[in-house]
Amino acid sequence: MAVRTTWNIVHSCGHEISHDLSNRPADRRAGFARWLQGRDCTDCWKAARDEDSAGKEEWLAAKRAEEQQAATEWAEQFDMPPLEGPEKALAWGERSRHQLVTTAYSALVTEGSWDEADWAALEDTIRTVTRVGWWIDQRDAEGTDLPELLDAATSDDTGTENPFR
Ligand SMILES: [Zn+2]
Predict the structure, then answer these.
(1) Choice between 159 and 90, residue whose per-residue pLDDT is larger
(2) Ligand 1 center–CA 29 separation, angstroms
(3) Could you give the maximum distance between any two Cα atoms of the chain, in Å?
(4) What is the mean pLDDT of the chain?
(5) Annotated region Disordered: where (predicted)?
């Protein structure tokens, strides 16, 4: 009696694939064949995985573009100076600044005890810190920590030129 080594499996995706199971112990082949039947074939499995990661990348890119636009509009509205530093870091820095400053406003003014005058003073300080790396470094900071962080900013972090001059 010939020992069966090749199994035609109809996968859950509907594709029928011939599998050589000769590298598995003979008494395990039927069980393994059943297990294969419950799964998509390799091509379909790979296609689904690639689609997943493409979809995720697309979603991330769209989300980033949306945040970038919000950051740009916000900077114009609140008269925030352009950041200084490596070209490729600028967009990230602007998003980080937008994120942290709006979080700080919510925490300190909307939900906190600061009035608009307190905030306006802080905003003046915010405008002086234009080193893009500083804002990127604070990207995970708590909004309530922003005043303290700004106090610790050094002359390296503040603008090399006054944008309003
Ligand atoms: Zn398939």
Answers:
(1) 90
(2) 20
(3) 95
(4) 92
(5) 143-165
- How far is the centre of ligand 1, averaged over its atoms, from the C-alpha of 86 (Å)? 47
Cα 36 to ligand 1 centroid, rounded to whole Å: 11
Ligand 1 centroid to residue 97 C-alpha, Å: 47
Distance 20 CA to ligand 1 centre (A): 17
Q: Are 47 and 93 in contact (CB under 8 A)?
A: no
Kindly give the distance from the C-alpha atom of residue 13 to the centroid of ligand 1, in angstroms, as a whole number.
5
Q: How far apart are CA 42 and CA 8, in angstroms?
A: 14
CA of 25 to the centre of ligand 1 (A): 25
Tell how far the Cα of 42 is from the centroid of ligand 1, in angstroms. Answer: 7
- Report pLDDT digits (tens) over 143-157: 999 999 999 999 899
- 139 Cβ partners below 8 Å, 6+ apart? 96, 99, 100
- How confident is residue 3, by pLDDT bands cut at 50, 70 and 90? confident
Question: What confidence category does residue 159 fall into, taking pLDDT thresholds of 50, 70 and 90?
Answer: confident
Report the alpha-carbon distance of residue 80 to residue 69 in Å, rounded. 14
